[in-house]
Amino acid sequence: MSPADNKILESGLPITPGQAQNEIETYDNLYEKKNFGTLDYPVSAYFLDLHKSYMSWIRWHWHEEMEILLIQDGTAEIFTDDASYVIRPGQGIIINQNVMHCIHSLDQNNCTFYTIVFHPEYLFGQKTSYLQTQYLLPVQNYQLFKIFLLDEKDPWHKRMLSSLSNAISVDMTQTYGYELATKGYLCLFWADLISHLPQHQKQVSSHVSLDEQRVKQAMLYIRTHYAEQVSLEDIADSIHVSKSECCRCFTRTLQMTPFEYLMKYRIFEATKKLMMPSTEPLSIADLALSVGFNSTSYFNKLFKKFLGCTPTYYRTHKVLSKDGDFVDCFDNLL
Questions:
Q1: CA distance 287 to 272
Q2: Which SS3 state, helix, strand or coil, does residue 181 take?
Q3: Which residues lie closer than 8 Å to 258 by C-beta, 6 or more apart?
Q4: 117 - beta bridge partners?
Q5: What is the Cα–Cα distance from 266 to 175, expressed in whole angstroms?
Q6: Which of 192, 218, 204 is nearest to 135 (CA)?
Q7: Quick check: 267 and 303 in contact, CB under 8 A?
Q8: What structural domains does the chain harbor?
Q9: Nearest partner of 262 among 294, 231, 307, judged by Cα
Q10: Given Cys at both, which of 117, 124, 168, 242 links 45, Cβ 3.0 to 4.6 Å?
């Protein structure tokens, strides 16, 4: 166990997966605009067991907040549009704002981590202020900073991990004044981070690539229109590129074609509908039609390909937990 985990344990922070898992929502949107914390305190820290997420994945998504993961047990892999990163106990990872990413477990037995999500502007007051210009914009505009890997073997990283561990601890225990303490620890973390980035770095371009911008827009289009008869031309038109360039963008970013993404998203939506309590559940034919499939046999074929079972079997065996409650985690099929 890493020193960061020891610090959390010493603080009396509960780390039982069942208790902490109930504190978070699943990643059900591609672009998350859910509230992390409150308007005055846009910070949220929680504990997550990846094996309680759908297929041990958190699917592709992005958000305006910065997200930081501290691994407790097991091994996780984080993907962006152009790279992947493996993190183990004693390590953490900083995911910059609006960076499209997904996470999955490489450990069959266990993969748990602490996460803190916050909006950096919270630390620096009003926009265009001196503090934002001096200390926030360099991180937001630093082109290479999509992902920043932290390792406790590096003294500089160890200090940041310690500050983040303290911030998570006080936010989750929520003793009186925790909001002030959390902000203080996040400021310490930020001061360490910014002090080691290249000074006087002049970047006018965002760290979000053109491919990523296009794919994000296409993903949002698919999310809105997946139940309709969507063609490759429709997807390409939504991002104002040719069909061939659209395919190249998806392949370079997600390592799949737009059509593969559309099919997986439709099956993902079907699993959600199968998990919804209903006195009159949809027939498989109606379910297929509701997520954009005209052919029930093709829907069954893809469902079995992606999930290893038929929709009927999934409804009767996968939907209900051992306690008879509906399982509310369908984080990733994509």
A1: 11
A2: helix
A3: 218, 222, 232, 235, 236, 246, 247, 250
A4: 44, 67
A5: 44
A6: 192
A7: yes
A8: 3-195 (2.60.120.280), 210-318 (1.10.10.60)
A9: 231
A10: 168
Identify the pLDDT of residue 182.
Answer: 95
Residue type, 178: Y
The tens digit of pLDDT for each residue in 218-228 reads 988 998 999 99
Q: Could you give the 3-state DSSP secondary structure of residue 59?
A: strand
Residue type, 92: G
The three-state secondary structure class of 77 is strand
Contact status, residue 52 vs residue 329, Cβ threshold 8 Å: yes
Whether the model clears a pTM of 0.70, i.e. scores above it, the answer is no
CA 130 distance to own-chain centroid: 31
The answer to whether the CB of 60 falls within 8 A of the CB of 332 is yes
The CA distance from 3 to 184, in Å, is 20
pLDDT, tens digit, for every residue of 63-119?
A: 888 999 999 999 999 988 778 899 999 999 999 888 888 898 887 778 999 999 998
